[in-house]
Amino acid sequence: MKATFLIHCPDQPGIISTVTSFIQQSGGNIVYLDQHVDKQAEVFFMRLEGEFTQFDKAESQIEENFEKEIAVPYAMEWSVHYGNEKPKMALFVSKYNHCLYDLLIRYSSGELSVEIPFIISNHNELQNIAKQFKIPFYHIPVTRDNKSAAEEKQLKLLKEHMVDFIVLARYMQIVTSRLIEEYPNKIINIHHSFLPAFAGAKPYHAAFNRGVKIIGATSHYVTEELDAGPIIEQDTTRVSHVHKVSDFIEKGRDLEKLVLSRAVQLHVNRKTMVYNNKTVIFT
Amino acid sequence: MKATFLIHCPDQPGIISTVTSFIQQSGGNIVYLDQHVDKQAEVFFMRLEGEFTQFDKAESQIEENFEKEIAVPYAMEWSVHYGNEKPKMALFVSKYNHCLYDLLIRYSSGELSVEIPFIISNHNELQNIAKQFKIPFYHIPVTRDNKSAAEEKQLKLLKEHMVDFIVLARYMQIVTSRLIEEYPNKIINIHHSFLPAFAGAKPYHAAFNRGVKIIGATSHYVTEELDAGPIIEQDTTRVSHVHKVSDFIEKGRDLEKLVLSRAVQLHVNRKTMVYNNKTVIFT
Amino acid sequence: MKATFLIHCPDQPGIISTVTSFIQQSGGNIVYLDQHVDKQAEVFFMRLEGEFTQFDKAESQIEENFEKEIAVPYAMEWSVHYGNEKPKMALFVSKYNHCLYDLLIRYSSGELSVEIPFIISNHNELQNIAKQFKIPFYHIPVTRDNKSAAEEKQLKLLKEHMVDFIVLARYMQIVTSRLIEEYPNKIINIHHSFLPAFAGAKPYHAAFNRGVKIIGATSHYVTEELDAGPIIEQDTTRVSHVHKVSDFIEKGRDLEKLVLSRAVQLHVNRKTMVYNNKTVIFT
Amino acid sequence: MKATFLIHCPDQPGIISTVTSFIQQSGGNIVYLDQHVDKQAEVFFMRLEGEFTQFDKAESQIEENFEKEIAVPYAMEWSVHYGNEKPKMALFVSKYNHCLYDLLIRYSSGELSVEIPFIISNHNELQNIAKQFKIPFYHIPVTRDNKSAAEEKQLKLLKEHMVDFIVLARYMQIVTSRLIEEYPNKIINIHHSFLPAFAGAKPYHAAFNRGVKIIGATSHYVTEELDAGPIIEQDTTRVSHVHKVSDFIEKGRDLEKLVLSRAVQLHVNRKTMVYNNKTVIFT
Lengths: 283, 283, 283, 283
Prior knowledge:
Helix content of chain A: 25-40%
Number of domains of chain A: 2
Shape of chain A: globular
Strand order of the largest sheet of chain A: 7-6-5-8-9-10-11
Structural class of chain A: alpha/beta
Largest interface: A-B, 30 and 30 residues
Radius of gyration of chain A: 21 Å
Oligomer: homotetramer
Order of helices and strands of chain A: EHEEHEEHEHEHEHEHEEHEE
Number of strands of chain A: 13
Low-confidence stretches of chain A: none
CATH class of the largest domain in chain A: Alpha Beta
CATH superfamily of the largest domain in chain A: Formyl transferase, N-terminal domain
Number of helices of chain A: 8
């Protein structure tokens, strides 16, 4: 059984050898270790994959021991994830289909190792795609007046299906504080600009008007402040004076798909950690 | 003799065939033609290179005829540049040497076909590099109190040497309106961010604090508004959580050199046109 | 009506002005012109888009006049394509679905302006995807013994549906001379390496074994020599020692999709010309 | 005092915890650890940086203990490098100055932390640059007849100055087996193509003739087989039909400089390990 440990704590000497010795003595063979120290914040981060031959029986014991012997003395925040778990991912969409298609194809081919209990949309247009891939589709319209009720429905579905994280695949509504608080650093958005340039609405139009020579896309965890959450992944592509806004949008779609799917993949593989509104992305 | 025509005018039918027929009838063979229409602004742009076998005698006549027969009826703004002209480029620098070195090496190898009458700096540090490449170096300190007098000295040098355009190779002073008015779309700056993100001071620090995964550099023509002029060239490179601000700066230096030298090369080869605070960059 | 002219001929003075005058006098307004001279081969290339207000009546007359007045004297090879034509594209696939999905999504969203009369496959696996997008699917198995008969069936379908060009979307069979001769520079392949490196079978394995730090994908027109036809488009992405062959394959899929769809788009928009086993790609 | 350990050995459980415990018990604080397992070859690689407060006294003792307690039982090959050491880098050049300039500027600005005891060239052209940067320059002509004698002179200089590694900064001679054997994985070359495409002479001409849309540069350790050694770093840039061979060469120069300097920097910072003709590049 593979177990992936994610750890962060105040930086201090001896953490690596203490943790690796513990894993070793608990019957685990370390197959991957990556660590990072944020010198400014004086915080230590580690991602460790161990292969445990007889983990099943001892699982709870190891977790208990780790908490007592390591986590408490080092003031760690930590989590452990097992190789046989598939996280449950909810998809929120509106009318654009490219990111939805991209994620569903990766899901159906097995490249993206998640369960997708349902797709929520404030519009009806993408219902057919959900049907193609046999995913339940819930149409929850959002208007100025029903925003709170709509959110209740969303939360109910998320809870019922024990969703682990949410992907906003070009969902054209601003999600509320309540959802963000329930899923801290667990809502992944794709913004169609090279943030922090062109946050907010109509970034391709803004980029066109500014006359940039490169456009981008940014995937980030959603926080209270719009388009200002911790960046997971970005990418860029060249444009020139020959490209109209519609060309920016077309080229941008390919960027959005790639950047969002990479971010989702990183999250699913437990390769992201968040601290001080920034991410550590393990390789 | 090669002659390069740069033209822009209100878009209307027949411009290309009229201009190409004129060139043909004036004894020129068109070896390159690129054109662009800005549909929003309804403006036509053209860059045309003609090879004239007996141009020397007829030069002034052709210019006169072009003005009368073509430019006036089509309400064109136009210029023509001859293959035997080397534009005069003044360099403004402060303390960073990487962009200065980069341009001087390209100049001395013949890759960059300009004359460099002098280098101006508000500091003394880079005098030795000027000496290595045998370029006159003028140290004109700039303080809050002498700003206007310093500018007078700069302008005097620029005029005396009939400078065609100015390159701010990491010059750490804001140039004044007066200089900008004298050299409209003829002052090239390099800004060490992916504009419009992180305009102003300390962009690498700002990028680091935002936790971006890609940094950039932008070369643009200087206008009144800081870091908001027409963009000539941009490029980007990846960073990650392992990079400190000092790594951003080091990686950024390589970007700045490349982006600035490409922008200068495009300007020197008359491949840039400016309209509505945006550039058309011919290939 | 928009008409796009593609022209190549021996380089000589006066071509541009002659052609542009002809278009002008035939009632066309030139909205785009790009030209290239291959100095080595002394060949002139041009792509010209004209907007004709009353073209429908005069179409055949203009073509006839162009042939007589321009093409014959200048020894041109030329073609003209009208804005209301949608080229017919046949898709050949095997078992990999990523390129097929990518093209079909672009097709169904209208981004890719073609008709797709059918999909041919030597396997059955992708039949369901064809069904999702309501495209006829022909399963034509290919074995060592039936190769010639299979090809007959393919050709028959291609002829019946008056197919304009063929896209091999990870079709895992070598197409025969006969097909290539029927569709010269009209069969587009995607090869999963940065050609000419790693031509032939298993390029990701070869790249892995060589220890490259960058992998690529190449789309090209199919010629007799395997993976040696005129290159339309290439792109690359970084890899490192942490990536296994399976990671190369996964990263490569995203490259393959993008590179193939860009190449197909260029072909559909008549932006490619072929000469001496190389392409001119207009912008 | 910072000490960097580079380790490789047959993969087996417990290495990480054993090594980290040793470092910890020897008074070192681990500030960086990266590890990699080559599953095919079943080899474990590790790079570890430790901060030792009282290392100076104990240095030899720690090395001795490490050898005895860790390296021997685990059948390790290992080396340790101290923060106060600057490796001695010899530069071999011919007539092209761009890579030489690039490395010398990084050296003189302190970005590249090496000593450069001398530059060797088979030509005289770059002597002035050596003088600018105050580096001894040895002109050792190489002809078919004197190749062996020339090599003797080179080796004598290398030995006298206790050179640690050699950089071939566009040195246009094939280095001999004798030199390679003396400096295994310590001679860094820059090849002006995206290897393995276009190995050997005139790669830009070959790339031009093939009609590629992207060109590259590759830095690698020199081995017996020409341009076939372990790749350290590669990069690519776009070209198109408008670029002549001379444009490939000009664009390529910028690639060569960047790729070579990155590779040298990685080597100097002990971030490269070689195994089975491939590199592990730590971040």
